[in-house]
Every structure is written in C-alpha cells, then in structure tokens.
Amino acid sequence: MNEFELIRIASRIFSTDRQDVIVGPGEDDCAVVEINGKNIVLTADVLHEKTDFPEGIKAEEIGHLSLAVNLSDLAAMGAKPLYFIHTVTLSRKWINEFEDMMKGMKKLAERYGVAVVGGDIDFGDELSIAGFAVGVADRFVTQSGAKPGEFVCLTGPLGKAQLSLEQLFSGMSREKIAYPESLFTPEPRVREGMEVAKHAGAMTDISDSLAISLHLIAEKSRVGIEIRSDLLPLDHLTPYVGEEKALELFLYSGGDYELVYTSNECTHGFVIGRVVEEKGVRIDGEEIEFRGYMHKPD
Prior knowledge:
By secondary structure, the chain is of the alpha+beta class. Helix content is 31%, strand content 27%. It folds into 2 domains: 3-137, CATH 3.30.1330.10; 151-287, Phosphoribosyl-aminoimidazole Synthetase, Chain A, domain 2 (Alpha-Beta Complex), CATH 3.90.650.10.
C-alpha cells in the first residue's frame, strides 16, 4: 500500500461529524477546526534519514527541512503559521549535530514569525524528525473548490529539486549540482499562500508532484483540468537535460515547495491551464498519470 491508500483507511476510522471540525482527517493538506470563532489550521509531517535527507545534507539544513515541509502544508491552505512542535529521534551519528539542527529550524521559524514551543527527543537507529504545526486563516482554501473557467496557476517553476537529486545520485558533488537550495533548503510559499487565499478557488502545494496535485484538485472538486505544454517554462531545466526529460521532471517530480491554485486571476506566478467541466487531468489533450513521489514500505 502507498501513503494515499493508508490515508483513506485512517480517514474512514477517524471520520467525525463534530461541528467544530471543519476539515477533517484525510480531506486536505491540513485539518481545520474552529476555536473561539477562528479557523485553526493543523498539520503534521515526518522526515526520515534514509528516504528524505539527501546525501551530504548538513545538520542545519535538516532542521530547515523538518519545519519547511510543515509550513508548506499551511501555505497550501492560505494559513498564517503560528506554532511548531517537533519530535526528534536521534541516531548516534547525529547526536553532536543536534544543536545545528535546531539552529536551522530556528532560522526558518524566525523568518515567518513561528514560535517553536517544544517537542520530544528520543534515540534510535535512524534519524527522524516529526513535526506538528499550527496556523490560523481568515479564509482557508481547500483542494475541492475549483470551478470550470478558472485559470490554473503555479507560483514558480518545477523540477529543480529532482534534477539536483538525480545529479547528486550520478556522482556530482553538492557544489556542482544545478539547484542545491531547492534540494537542501526549499522555501515554503507562506506569504504567497496567504495572498492567493484571498481569491483562489482551490489550492495545494507540490511536494509530491504537479501531476498528483492536479489530480487531487480535479477529483475533489469534481472537475477536469487542461494543461498546455506551451505554458510550462522549461528553460531552467533544458541546459541540463533534453526537452522530454525536462517535461517529465516538471510534471512528475517531487520536492518542489511551490503552490498550484485555481482562480479567476493569477496574482502570483503564471498560468499553466484551465479548469474545465470534462473530468480528468490532461496536457495538450493527453491524460496525465497520477504519478510522483509517494511513500511506500521497503
């Protein structure tokens, strides 16, 4: 089973009809609950050394990533991040690097006004960091609000992280890969998400792939999405790979912390297509696969 199948199981078990739970388990990037008339946005994520930390990553960058992945989920719903709690499982090789990890986390937290208010520290065979983030939103945006006729927009170009990871796997040093910052210290689009939330119909982040994100929006909104290849900028990838590979990276690679949203106006980023009535997700009329980065057991 992959993570999406497991999420469906957990969502069925924990489904609730409580009035204060506005967005429940498995419905979107985050849960939303109402507390004292405010929309409180909640999310959690976990990173593991073997599957999530590229070779050569520095301790400070691990701290950055562990917070960034959670902030990206909050950004995907237009929330202002407020608080963060971490649970760190340290393996022996990382114990002396713990302080630098926390400094990396703090640096990113301060950039977005996030208070890191505690956590837990344990020891194990593999480094992992689980995080829980809390935000607030005047108007939150889900994956289910896209309407036919809206533009489909991206906040930035895609494929940089996966291109750099593949270069790293090929034997390149981290100093020579194309986009080390996209791989080691991706920037969550927090401010963009809060601005776009004022007018977007649907929105999500692209941590798994553009293809997966578009399918989630189309399925939950009960619409179709038509993408045009001539609207996809590939010039940041084509100096390193051919056009066919560049398009593959743009559509199906994970690790990019950009946002995709639907709206009648594209205020941040650029248009890549339209929401249509006919179900499915297509590029130039051809079906886009539901494919990208998915957690699976070994």
